[in-house]
């Protein structure tokens, strides 16, 4: 794989709570230099100017997912109105832990219906879930009309992406939904392992290290 190809897997991400608009400008400049697929920033930092070949992604219900669905939908709608081409929403993890996957699906569908035509990625927080719970969440995301399932916020104390979780997600919905690995991907070897496992997108804040290590 060439550096340019690897770069196109990456959502160049900056979601620290203290992020400033000036830091976002630097992020965009670096993403343009590296040739990443997108930048991913917090909703309050939208809108942001980017080159034509760079997409803007944002997050929704982040990082806990424990927001009312209507609030998530409103947040996503506002973000799209401010230029976001993709929205990464966090599920209500408690619904998954209690086995209420119809509630997981309804939560996702509420956001899906608020932003028709926009790429929706569903963060299931895999490190906090069992394999069965991951499987059911992926199927709920597919039924609700999402385009991607995503491993992690990168903020959960249980951890971020794992090769096992990506392989499982790929087994469940691969070929139908995109799979985004995110959380703890800081070096080239980890990124390539995630892609080999089935990831079609990577969320990285250390994108330069990942790309230039190739």
Automatic annotation (TrEMBL):
GO-annotated biological processes: 2-deoxyribose 1-phosphate catabolic process; carbohydrate catabolic process; deoxyribonucleotide catabolic process
Location relative to the cell: Cytoplasm
Catalytic activity: 2-deoxy-D-ribose 5-phosphate = D-glyceraldehyde 3-phosphate + acetaldehyde
Enzyme Commission identifier(s): 4.1.2.4
Enzyme's top EC category: lyase
Record's keyword annotation contains Manganese: no
Protein's UniProt keywords contain Cytoplasm: yes
List of catalytic residues: 88 (proton donor/acceptor), 150 (schiff-base intermediate with acetaldehyde), 180 (proton donor/acceptor)
Classification via SMART domains: DeoC
A GO term for molecular function: deoxyribose-phosphate aldolase activity
Family per record: Belongs to the DeoC/FbaB aldolase family. DeoC type 1 subfamily.
HAMAP family according to UniProt: DeoC_type1
Protein name in the entry: Deoxyribose-phosphate aldolase
Gene: deoC
